[in-house]
Specification:
By secondary structure, the protein is of the alpha+beta class. The protein is built from 14 helices and five strands. α3 packs antiparallel against α4.
Length: about 475
Amino acid sequence: MRTLFEKIRIIAVPLLTLPALCFAQDAAQIADEMKGLVDASLQEYQMLEKQIADEKTPLVVRMSSLEERNLQLRAEVESYRFLNERVSEEIAGLNKEGKSLQDQVEYVRSAFDTFLSKFDSRISLAESQRYFDELESIRAQASSDQPLATQFEGLVKTLELSLERNEAVLGGAIFSGKAIDGEGAIHPGQVVVWGPSGFFLEDGGERAGVLSYHSGAIEPGVTFLEGEQGSNLASFISTGDGTIPLDPTLGDALALEKSKGDVFTHLRRGGLVGYVILALGLAAALVSLLKIRDLKGFSTPSTDDIAELSRLAHEVGSQKAIAKAAEIRGVASEVMATGIRNMNKNALLLEETMLSVVLRAKPRMERYLPFLAITAAASPLLGLLGTVVGLIKTFALITLYGAGAPNALSAGISEALITTELGLIVAIPTLILHGLFSRLIRSRIVALEQVAFDFVETTNLELAQAK
């Protein structure tokens, strides 16, 4: 009889074997399918690889061609860039050269304009009438609204006209004309132009002088000469024989010399503030003289003199010693007299008594020094005040007459500058004198204190010897 295990095995074995047989059949079928797929994929890959190979060659050739073209274009761009830089540099150079040429043209034109202006201002009134039409024509031709070539043609005519005029006056030219003196009076007479110099002889032959020409003046200025020079010049103009003065400044030096005036004229230009500064300076000078007198009247006794006075006070008596001390000049006499009268006191009290005389005399010795200090400090401030006042006057005149009237502005400017000058002239010496006097007075006080110490020491020594 079969056992239960055997029965189970007989039943289980067929059951387990059946799936394995089914799986074996499926695996074989799957393998065949996979092989077919792999073969199909491999064929497709080979076809794609061949297609890529067929298409790659033209692309590589095309890419090489494009890269070569790119290199050529880059080379062309660099060439154009280099050419552009060269062209830019050449343009900048041409612009710079053009600017330089333009500046040169403007400079030459400005020089011509200046020459035309100076030529017009240098000629006398009679000559300006002679050349009036030609100068007006040149100005019209040289105006800024004309072409540049036309302007230069007109300006060159100025040189030609100047050369013609120089040839005419090289040997001397004489004609009737007028001149104005420093006071504004107009004098008719004879004008002589000889080279760059101009001379004038008043009608009647009484006075002769040197002409000076100023831009904008209606008549030339004349500075009449005095004495032998005026006589020689009048003789030369009248007869053509004689000596004449040659002034390289064309009369400006003579006019400047006459315009300077004397010291009092210079001081008067400082105005009211200038007078106040001068008054302070005069007072400071008087105070300085008083201090010099005080310092000269000061003397200190020597050590031998002090010993002699102490000996006389002990041996002869105080009255004899005080009379001897009175011969000493200055505060030292009072210090010694006080010491002689109090020599019987102890040394400390005697020293304090003599030093008290020095302290009482110190304010008297330092008198007037504060005034000198105030003067030294106030004078520059007064000068600054005068400067401000002068500038206010100047700006007021500018408001009335404008900045083109130097004669009207000169008074305020002179006052502004002269008061500053006077303030410094007074302040600097006063400051130096104040410092010098202070130093001397301090040294005198120290010397008086030393006299007191020496007298006390000498007195104590004699008292010790007497004992």
